[in-house]
Amino acid sequence: MYQKYKTAQKHFWHPMGPSAPVAQKDTLIICRGDGNYVYDADDNKLLDGFGGLWNVNVGHNRTEVKQAINRQMDELAYYQTFDGIAHPRVYDLADRLIGMFAQEDMSRVLFSSGGSDAVETALKMARQYWVAAGEPNRTRFLSLKNGYHGVHVGGTSVGGISAYHFNHGPMLSGCHLLDSPWLYRNPWDCRDPAALTNLCIRQLEEQIAFLGPQTIAAFIAEPVQGAGGVIVPTPDYWKRVREVCDRHGILLIADEVVTGFGRSGSLLGSRGWGVAPDILCLAKAISAGYIPLGATVFNRRVAETIEQARGFANVVMHGYTYSGHPTACAAALAVLDIVERENLPENAGCVGRELLHKLQSLSDQFELVGEVRGKGLMIALDLVSDKRTRQPVDPMSGISARIADLTRINGVLVRPVGPKIVISPPLTINVSEANMIAEALHTALSDYR
Ligand SMILES: Cc1ncc(COP(=O)(O)O)c(C=O)c1O
Questions:
Q1: Residue 444 is part of a domain; what is its CATH number?
Q2: Does 116 sit in the ligand 1 pocket, CB within 6 Å?
Q3: What band does 2 get if pLDDT is binned at 50, 70 and 90?
């Protein structure tokens, strides 16, 4: 099987990796998936401890989703949604999302093809909101270091992981990064959650005062930072950010591309913090990897201001060929049925708590594991070269990739991300599968030592 792809693999650039086709003898080729497991080219069965890419939340090969896709393909595989044209599934899904997020006073949806699209749509429509509201100078964005908001120019510019900036500058002007409320590593060396919230909020207030609130369109952040290393904010952080945004009229955008639909233990990560954002960015779990789909959801404040604006400010000059793709919408409707019927956010909360508890014992046993943190079924092992100083292992050392390889030998897929090992299995896993993840990592770390 591998031999067959020897030439073909030279024609493909792996995203987020070296461009030259070097060392690809180790390429992992996944050939099929079933439930919480995938099978590689040698038919090794692997527990999908990363859920595809944080997205296969309902597991692989679900009959209901495949049937919904096939039914839709038979009926109407594709039609567009520009210029007053629609099809039943896009209305069904829009209706479903607005119903699910009634508590957040959500009111309108724009569909797209993935998370980067959903973020770009949010940023552009936030600016349009301010044009509609008669304050066109509000164009700036505030966001957090270690944040990840996809790879389009806007999302990269508000992103707080510098590796994504290096090759593609200059970034969009008017994007300003703040420190994230991260207890393990922050510039103040503050280990007290309430004090850290205060420090971060003071920095936010100072930045707003410096820039002038009348120039700021929105604050965007993830309810739990994912790609940055599963950084769980201090408990009162989001509520305090909402208060500051309200005081200055700034829109609050929650990038829920990873946390949306249950991964952090509540239907929305922001709901878990007791906060209703103005705009939600959704993708990944909405269609659980079966077909690409993104959605940006706007609350009544944003929707009514845009709709009631006079002149061109009420025209939505934004959309994609695949906005509201009928087959993707059909897949999403079937996925959301499963999420609700199987109460997956609750399962993520319960199984996630047990898994986190088990994994945290690794930091007592291994010098390499500085901290294990997480919320729901998004968990990270932070690998350090010095536990006392919390110095991360050199991201170029390949240590995290080696640990992930050893974990795979023990039948579990986890993802090395820089100096971290990240775990985000399907939300359908049970406690014994969670134990498999913990045991595989324990064995991998012992073998590495
Ligand atoms: C929080 C967040 N926003 C946006 C994105 C971008 O999504 P996509 O890769 O579907 O474009 C991601 C992807 O991991 C993400 O984690």
A1: 3.90.1150.10
A2: yes
A3: low
